[in-house]
């Protein structure tokens, strides 16, 4: 079973039409990326090393991430699609493509990075004062990581 060939046949053209190009191709991992005004977006398809005949699709953008299974079922724990043979793998890849088309691209639109970046230190003044008091009382040096070892 040549998963790479099936991914090429079933998904690559649609992803390319939507601005995604292959970033990496391995025997167990296929990464598609596109650049947008808000940054880079990724669709990763990978084959499980733990489960036999299992594949998943993940979406991430450096700010947020999700899986195709979550977009399909809302299940945070379950992330793998299982298949039995080449025909069922084809059907699974078609399902993943449908999720990309119907939910994945919209997910990128709704989960882009914030318009404004957070300030360098966005802690409230009360929390900053409390942290400084804790550091002083416990003689911590926040420039020396050994001072934080118990």
From the spread of the alpha carbons, the general shape counts as elongated
Rg for CA atoms: 21 Å
| Share of residues in strands | 15-25%
Unreliably modeled segments: none
Roughly how many Å apart are the termini?
52 Å
Determine the structural class based on helices, strands and strand pairing: alpha+beta
Enumerate how many helices there are, as a single number: 4
Number of strands: 6
Following the backbone from N to C, one meets helices and strands in this order, namely: HEEEEEHEHH
Largest sheet: 6 strands, antiparallel
Proportion of helical residues? 25-40%
Q: Please tell me the overall pLDDT.
A: 86
Q: What are its keywords?
A:
alpha+beta, 6 strands, 150 residues, elongated, 4 helices, six-stranded antiparallel sheet
